[in-house]
Amino acid sequence: MNTVTDKGVISARPMADVQGSRDHRNLAIDRVGVRSLRYPVLVQTEQGPTASVANFSMAVALPADKKGTHMSRFVALLETMNKQCQALSPEVMSELSRDLLVLLEANQGSLSAAFPFFIEKAAPVSGVKSLMDYQVVLQAESSPGKATVAIEVRVPVKSLCPCSKEISDYGAHNQRSEVTLRAEFAEGKVPSLEALIRAVEAQASCELWGLLKRPDEKYVTERAYDNAKFVEDLVRDVALSVKAFAGVVSFSVEAENFESIHNHSAWARITG
Amino acid sequence: MNTVTDKGVISARPMADVQGSRDHRNLAIDRVGVRSLRYPVLVQTEQGPTASVANFSMAVALPADKKGTHMSRFVALLETMNKQCQALSPEVMSELSRDLLVLLEANQGSLSAAFPFFIEKAAPVSGVKSLMDYQVVLQAESSPGKATVAIEVRVPVKSLCPCSKEISDYGAHNQRSEVTLRAEFAEGKVPSLEALIRAVEAQASCELWGLLKRPDEKYVTERAYDNAKFVEDLVRDVALSVKAFAGVVSFSVEAENFESIHNHSAWARITG
Amino acid sequence: MNTVTDKGVISARPMADVQGSRDHRNLAIDRVGVRSLRYPVLVQTEQGPTASVANFSMAVALPADKKGTHMSRFVALLETMNKQCQALSPEVMSELSRDLLVLLEANQGSLSAAFPFFIEKAAPVSGVKSLMDYQVVLQAESSPGKATVAIEVRVPVKSLCPCSKEISDYGAHNQRSEVTLRAEFAEGKVPSLEALIRAVEAQASCELWGLLKRPDEKYVTERAYDNAKFVEDLVRDVALSVKAFAGVVSFSVEAENFESIHNHSAWARITG
Amino acid sequence: MNTVTDKGVISARPMADVQGSRDHRNLAIDRVGVRSLRYPVLVQTEQGPTASVANFSMAVALPADKKGTHMSRFVALLETMNKQCQALSPEVMSELSRDLLVLLEANQGSLSAAFPFFIEKAAPVSGVKSLMDYQVVLQAESSPGKATVAIEVRVPVKSLCPCSKEISDYGAHNQRSEVTLRAEFAEGKVPSLEALIRAVEAQASCELWGLLKRPDEKYVTERAYDNAKFVEDLVRDVALSVKAFAGVVSFSVEAENFESIHNHSAWARITG
Questions:
Q1: How does pLDDT run across B10-46, given as a tens digit for each residue?
Q2: Cβ contacts (< 8 Å) between C169 and chain B: which residues?
Q3: Which residues of A touch B168 (CB under 8 A)?
Q4: N or C terminus of chain B: which is more exposed, having fewer CB within 10 Å?
Q5: Longest dimension (CA), chain C
Q6: Contact state of C34 with B268 under an 8 Å Cβ cutoff
Q7: ipTM
Q8: For chain D, where are the E strands, in sequence order?
Q9: pTM, to two decimals
Q10: Which residue ranges form the domains of chain A, and what is each CATH number?
Q11: What is the CA radius of gyration of chain C?
Q12: How confident is the model at residue A150 (pLDDT cuts 50, 70, 90)?
């Protein structure tokens, strides 16, 4: 063993900085950092900051001549965010991803936060209110003087099959589906998470609610039947909605139907 | 360090058996063993042995005065099973759980194997054939001279809501559901996995298939509509079916509907 | 179709209450309700209420002559809790489980909430502070005039193998482990979540932290080496700690080592 | 309802082909198909075909003027593969992805199969034999006259921290890690799955085995201690190994250390 300090006593002599030593393999690393780090967060919503719990990934580029990065500094950045009670938003993610470059002495960085997000919704007929949950991911990429942020929302909806409706004397199979919309917007043109979620829900056979009374259940049933859509229709209609947002730079839309007549999913994706 | 052997050389002197030493805390351990051990298996079916991959858990009771069990012997038992090409069945699981007691010098043991199981099914109208997959767990408990085996099958089905059908002018919400049947049978009275799965499927609003042609899809849609069931109906009807099996000693039936109008599940359980 | 209302118009005549009708199968249901319902929550801690997101399961017993339960009332109970900003604690869970009986007109009920829980910890040498996350489940069971609550904490720790230490000339394999402690306490004797978590951490080869500086990493490495424990030692030592709590009615302790020398886990359980 | 057939009777008149109708949104779909389809498979190994269970995803491009794809044909392709007992290999995946284009009348397609894969390994000192499991993904992309196949292997290994070893008087923290290697090779130059897995294992602090006797455990412990590697070292050394394979067209290497001193992972990636 190479240290000479007594056990349990911290030496006055600084400890060896193995990570900071020179690497001789001449191979740069695209990204190195931490994953699966859970932290309580505030999230910016249309009604102000609300609490959630996020799963963070953070990483930076490492030049060919450096042996290692400084893992503890990633966690230190989250501690700072937490202490300052900064509410997550695309702008704050962009800022944090730039702080990452400074803190880690890096020239490229990535930062993502995945968290459940809640919206209070009124049932369509009775108006009774309840929360619906959505999974959101904010993903920032930074280089000196530049940062881009992609927003991903996963929206559970109902889909009803047009073929089943057409060929059957009555009824039509329907099921829960999940639409994943991921988009990047020009600065100053970033819509709220709620606006993106509503844009998806409007294109489903029917949207979902946490709490429905009988008149609401009748509405949902008939609305879905009147509004049959294949998984192909779903991704096309959501893609057209997203294109209509001012300032959209790029996007992808995926839909997965957890088929109620099979034990597998129907799935489609459009990118633009 | 306490060994005196040269590095990399195995000493002629036997290595210390730490696990085999005496424990002084006077506290017996209910179960100790291994988990999340994946092994290729053969499974006994109505058509003979078929291949799958199982996730094994294995454990034994440890008396108060023993420090540790012999972890490598659990894996050795699977190696023996694999080498002998034994096909898993309730009887073989019972045998293996008794072997476990001998091998681990224990007086109580548990052994479980969870694996995907496939049945070839013919579509209801076109007759076209395809495989459907089910999750199965075989769980054995043994003590000297005695072993019991529980069979668990997880059967994905379709459920259609009677309330939605009743109150709506047309259509009815429906969704994928999962029925979990767990049962223990008297010796010599154990039904095949296929028989248990068919007993569950017969009680659903409709069963599922991997491959359906348009006439089949019409049949499935109308059959489910004609056969609306709440999650409560589903567990009751499956429970009645299970009670009708000769030799059933105990059972539990759970059903979970992945609701197509909510982002949560409806769920029910009957034990008997 | 059996309704006479015009499409899209809610009839003045009350809608049929299918769930409320009489059932003729003469089979009571142990539990029926909802699952996988995510809701933002406040959780009672030693420092006061803090925010988290919980996954709820809620269910009641259904008598043999009733066709169905009232699913929407489960969600209504969470809405009430949320509106009143009630912080979850064993006492509040017990209260909610009694409210469940009244609201659902039932004589037995179950209610569980699973959520991530955070504790700020100071690193062992540098004292630098960061959050650690734990999974907690509060599980209540109620019948008229009675409610019991079990607390489950899942605590990630480090384990170091005594056998590997004993037989090797240097080093010893170690790994991340998870200890799951579940316990029920007499009324008025319920410890804080933090106290239970600390009781588990104190028995590991070493506890974990989110953020460690080099002197801390040296401490953790040496502390684990000085404190080697088998998975059997871990469950025994935690079980002894739990028994020392005043008012403990029943408990189970499980430990799972995600072995660093195998691709499976070592696992043990003690109940008392 | 629009059909005129009697319920349950298949009309002589062909059923409407809704999917085959013309779409007017003028929006092509990148990929549409099925997901999460489990099927038993044979996998080509150095010892010949062995059984496993695969999770398939299959999708094709859909032109702007077509309303939908023919979902049942994806499943039909798997049925054909299963009936012919074709063993999966990069070549067979490439063939299947070309069949997909013909069957679905498409000009681009994707096909992936994810499955557990087993290798019999001899323990390093005792030579005792046991199986180790690895997750493998074969991913094919096809267009007329062209198909490329990427191979992904997920290899669980042991990593031991150089910093912890350097600064501590004794011991060093170590843990289970997972290395994910994904690579594409020129035709005729595709190595076996076993060769890729061995290339990864050779670069870890130490590889893993299912079954180890005490002399093996001593070897693994000391070998890892003698061979300390950061997550950065791990991805660099594996990347250098992969580059040395003849015919490698592109690759990515990721490593994730399930840290035994934290409740999060250290992670790195190199692409080339």
A1: 444 578 888 888 999 999 999 999 999 999 999 999 9
A2: 1, 3, 5-7
A3: 217-218, 221-222, 225
A4: N
A5: 85
A6: no
A7: 0.92
A8: 29-45, 48-62, 87-88, 109-122, 129-143, 146-160, 174-185, 248-257, 265-271
A9: 0.94
A10: 28-271 (3.10.270.10)
A11: 24
A12: very high
